[in-house]
């Protein structure tokens, strides 16, 4: 009999110990979103609107924390074209690359900055306002360090203080912010974009090699150009321009693309001296009458606009500035 009693006491103690040491979930949510960056907040907005049981977990003490440090040179590369001449909201949103989707029109970047490329601090403020005005639920200072699947449909997450959270669905919105460090001999002598000095005096009169011709490479070149002696830029492949590829991840930097309005096309050969832009490639957009002017007709078909009598935009591309002689010979410009 005695061994049985001892065994029962031991079992009872184990149950008590297990209950004491198992982390009871601090919270249970149908939807757990990790990260209060633009993507987490946008999803939070729609879940909130739909009345769902959700919570965003953010390791810092603010929304949009990525943009407190990045871009390092503090100018966004996403455009804020405030006026398009149109009232169509969807069309206008295509010219506003910063605002999140919202029913509240006051939450548009156009009301926060008049700059075409806004300051990154303004975007942080925008994301904080977006969170507050919509009442999006965010648990700040909560770094999720572990996510495990408990059974078929449930997840359990753990934060830095061993608090646990039960979640029906987990959505990871933690961004892609780890530096991409290349492997080559001597890489230890290089300084990454994430650590580079922002004091222009450190580059005074120096020759700087920038590896990479993407947005951060050109952003850096743009920033230090006034101090350096020479800047060399290396890349495995030629740079690609976003306006060319339609992929926003490739180069959008202004160093290589400047918009000049109403420059007389017959003076194109003098572009450098007249404007000071030491340019190579030129894309010219002009309004032009169709070749068959005598037809005096409106085709109504965009692809046949060149047949039309009416003015229509025509693009010309030069991979180097035309000479004055070439301009005279040219049939188009
Ligand atoms: C150098 C650089 C410059 C850029 N400049 C621009 C620009 O000018 N304009 C533009 O539109 N885009 C820019 N981008 C792209 C932009 O940063 C991303 O598209 C955008 O931040 C992605 O949003 P996100 O919500 O997915 O991630 P993020 O904005 O990175 O947000 C992720 C959030 O998750 C949090 N988090 C991460 N891990 C955890 C965890 N374990 N637990 C809890 N929270 C966590 C982070 O603190 C952060 O707040 C730039 C990117 C880079 C690298």
TrEMBL record:
Transmembrane segments: none annotated. Gene3D superfamilies: FAD/NAD(P)-binding domain. InterPro entries: Auxin_biosynth/cation_transpt, FAD/NAD-bd_sf. Keywords: Oxidoreductase, Signal. Residues 1-20 form the signal peptide. This is FAD-dependent oxidoreductase domain-containing protein 2-like.
């Amino acid at each position: 009999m005695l061994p049985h009693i001892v065994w029962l006491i031991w079992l009872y103690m184990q149950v008590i110990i297990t209950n004491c040491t198992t982390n009871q979930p601090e919270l249970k949510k149908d939807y757990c979103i990790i990260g209060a960056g633009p993507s987490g907040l946008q999803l939070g907005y729609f879940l909130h609107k739909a009345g769902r049981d959700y919570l965003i977990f953010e390791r810092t003490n603010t929304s949009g924390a990525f943009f407190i440090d990045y871009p390092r040179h503090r100018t966004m590369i996403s455009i804020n074209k405030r006026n398009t001449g149109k009232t169509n909201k969807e069309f206008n949103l295509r010219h506003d690359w910063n605002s999140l989707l919202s029913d509240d029109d006051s939450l548009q970047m156009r009301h926060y900055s008049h700059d075409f490329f806004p300051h990154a601090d303004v975007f942080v403020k925008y994301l904080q306002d977006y969170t507050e005005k919509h009442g999006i639920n965010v648990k700040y200072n909560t770094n999720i360090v572990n996510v495990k699947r408990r059974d078929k449909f449930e997840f359990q997450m753990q934060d830095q203080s061993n608090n646990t959270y039960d979640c029906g669905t987990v959505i990871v919105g933690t961004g892609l912010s780890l530096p991409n460090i290349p492997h080559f001999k001597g890489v230890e002598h290089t300084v990454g974009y994430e650590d580079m000095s922002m004091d222009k005096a450190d580059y005074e009169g120096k020759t700087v090699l920038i590896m990479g011709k993407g947005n951060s490479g050109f952003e850096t070149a743009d920033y230090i150009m006034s101090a350096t002696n020479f800047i060399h830029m290396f890349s495995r492949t030629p740079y690609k321009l976003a306006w060319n590829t339609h992929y926003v991840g490739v180069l959008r930097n202004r160093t290589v693309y400047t918009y000049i309005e109403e420059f007389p096309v017959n003076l194109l050969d003098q572009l450098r001296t007249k404007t000071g832009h030491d340019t190579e490639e030129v894309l010219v957009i002009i309004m032009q009458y169709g070749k068959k002017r005598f037809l005096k007709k409106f085709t109504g078909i965009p692809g046949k606009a060149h047949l039309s009598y009416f003015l229509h935009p025509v693009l010309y591309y030069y991979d180097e500035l035309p000479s004055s002689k070439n301009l005279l010979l040219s049939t188009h410009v």
